[in-house]
Amino acid sequence: MEKENGLCKYCNGVLTQTRGELVCTNCGIVNNSIYISENSSNQIPWDHEMSPGKRVHIVDGLGSYIGYHNDGYFHDGKGTTLSSKNQYKFRKLKHKYNLRIKIGNHETDYRSLMSLNRVSGFLGISDSVKKRAAYLYKIVTTAETNNKIAKISNHIVLVALCLMVAIRESASNAPIRLSEIVSIFKDLGHRVSGKSIVKLAQTLPNDLGFSLKIRKSEDYLQRIISSIIEVPEVADRLKQLRFSKKEYENKLLRFSREILSETNLRSRGGRNPYIFAVSVVYCADRIIGKVRNHRQILTQKTLADICEVAEYSIRDHHRTVLKEKMNDKLKDLVPHKNIELDENDSKFPMFF
User: How many independent structural domains does the chain possess?
Assistant: First the structure.
């Protein structure tokens, strides 16, 4: 009744919700407890079934932690602090629980998820992407345990696939290439290849949600330009030209996006989107140099070294697809000048 009319049953004061309880604002007496059920649409899909203190990207043994992860001070179910004797007892229990028994019968998952954590650290991806990858991994392993899919021979390859899918889902927030993921796994001693990852993705049922979204060159622009700006030689060259790093970065990004917006997917063909993005940035730099009437800041060799791509790939993309787009852009920007850029310009070294 008190919940229905909102009045205290002791003094008829107004009730308010505080920490899951109905408390009288007049006398302060707790009238009743309330339970709030959150709408499932507001829950994070890889966290909403987890117990408090349990992390999806770690093998958690029989259930949730005693307390929370790395928690050394304990409370009972009502939030009351335990006695010093019980604190010592539960600290010992928590230590025992975190030992070998925690991963009993889960050794494969433990090794796989630990590799996921290490690779995520090397790549510097966000915690949400890592959790999403671990969630996808557990979906597949659960289906495997229930015999809904064929047995997977290499769970490290599965972890690499899950990480790739999670990264692709995050779009431009984590523009990491498949080759980079494979390289990190190999550096850690795992036998992983891009071919094995793609092959595994093709064998998994569609209802598990493993669709490798194709990257676009636009997704890589910010990452490429940020890498260029951080190079000391580029910073020195900009200083010589009295060109601020922020202004140069904005112009590179602007012209690169404009070139890509005018280059449809059919014109790009089956070219690698990352390498194509690097080539577009090269063209944007040449446009900036022509507009500001100074030699280009980036040469093909310099850009190839910074972005770790082949120099001939930049040259090929520039000559076959991007040169005409670049010249059209220059006609609009500097119509009174001779906009035809000499192909030999790219062979000159930078003035460092």
Answer: 4
